[in-house]
User: Fold this.
Amino acid sequence: MEMKQISYGGFDAIEMVTSKVRMVVVTGTGPRVAFFGKPGGENLFSWFPDDIGRGDWKLLGGHRVWINRPDADESEDTYAADNSPCKVETAGEEWIITGGVHPLLKISRGLRIKKVGEDTFQVTNFLRNDGALLYSGGVWAVTCTHPLAGTTYAIPLGDRSRAWDMIKIVIPRQWGGNVCKVDDPQFTWTEDFLVIHPEGVQSKRMLASLQGAIIMTCPQQGISFIKQSRFHSWGQYPLGCNLAIYIGSGNFTVEMESYGAQQTVQPGESIQNYETWKLVDEVFDWQSLEAVGCHLKGFRQPDLH
Assistant:
């Protein structure tokens, strides 16, 4: 893998390139993964050069590390110290990018990124308690993607491995000043997937998913992006859900979100949300779980609780 320091959108950044994937991680603010796609190809992630955001906080786009707070996912903690300059470290073949420490909450968050294969990376999203008192929450990994025409998304509903094969989905009618419809044609079903067809109408769905996978397939580029995280059976998740997908107004972005289990964080300790990212040269039609499942085998992280 080739790695070098570059400037991206006016920010200091690290570029990582394999034969299959180009990834750019902004370190001058964030941290953010600003670019993810094929070398020489288009960016699958949204990256905003303008000032979309809330107060002093800037969205920017790409992939960011967020926080889910017990019963208060829209609390100010969510935004705290998210646009600070980052500290960059290396540990073998792993890069560790840590954002600033919030002056009041004494928490910091960041990314550990490691190449697993030419088309696969392990992305560890973490939150660290740098203070002297307890903190509680979960690590919420948010990936802002750019839906080119024809792009669809899907979440596997299960692997049919249980006698009671049940599906849990939460539809937030309103959250953080936003509203969405229950009867929304952007969301359809096959026997094995919730399928998302972004049409520019703001909406959101949350799911409990044992597979922990959200998949983006882009016919224009002939590729699919898979990100997968582990569902911990012991975990407390927002409304019992570990995954969510958000469609922004006018398709300005589609967010692929995974929630880490909510935990108490001791002083000096960290909690993580492990994700595996894979870019494959396939376009899925969401009719066959087996076609996608072959890419998910071996992706699950060990339950370390």
User: Anything to note?
Assistant: The first strand starts at residue 2 and ends at 8.
